[in-house]
């Protein structure tokens, strides 16, 4: 699957869908963003079963603000609608490949159980 452009209109439906979605928040004027772009695009071709989306922070300022983007590039990974990774900075290709493998290997039942336990604890403290 090729990289898709994400906007305020399609962001939520894309990242909340089942499966894995990587999102690159970027801007045309950002050197590190331009340096990371070929790595991101190459990964999108190598992993057709994963969604890869890009958010142009200049065109989608409201979306970038809602996502609390303060530095670009910022890379996010969602799995089954759950944010499982967020980090600012351009990753080298090898590190991005390792991140993709790590997200694929996640035990989502365990992650959902951890989230439920955290929500229960927070509710008990309230």
From TrEMBL:
It holds the Pfam family Thioredoxin. GO terms for cellular component: cytosol. It comes from the Bacteria. Residues 1-105 form the Thioredoxin domain. One of its GO terms (molecular function) is protein-disulfide reductase activity. SUPFAM superfamilies: Thioredoxin-like. The keyword GTP-binding does not apply. Keywords: Disulfide bond. InterPro entries: Thioredoxin-like_sf, Thioredoxin_CS, Thioredoxin_domain. Gene3D superfamilies: Glutaredoxin. PANTHER family: GEO12009P1, THIOREDOXIN 2. This is Thioredoxin.
């Amino acid at each position: 699957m090729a990289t898709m452009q994400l906007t305020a209109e399609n962001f939520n439906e894309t990242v909340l869908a089942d499966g894995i979605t990587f999102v690159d928040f970027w801007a045309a004027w950002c050197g590190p963003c331009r340096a990371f772009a070929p790595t991101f695009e190459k990964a999108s071709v190598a992993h057709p079963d994963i969604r890869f989306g890009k958010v142009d922070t200049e065109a989608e300022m409201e979306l970038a603000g809602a996502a609390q983007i303060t530095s670009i590039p910022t890379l996010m990974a969602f799995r089954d609608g759950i944010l499982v990774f967020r980090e600012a900075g351009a990753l080298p290709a090898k590190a991005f490949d390792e991140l993709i493998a790590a997200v694929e290997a996640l035990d989502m039942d365990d992650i959902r159980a951890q989230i439920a336990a955290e929500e229960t604890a927070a509710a008990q403290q309230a």
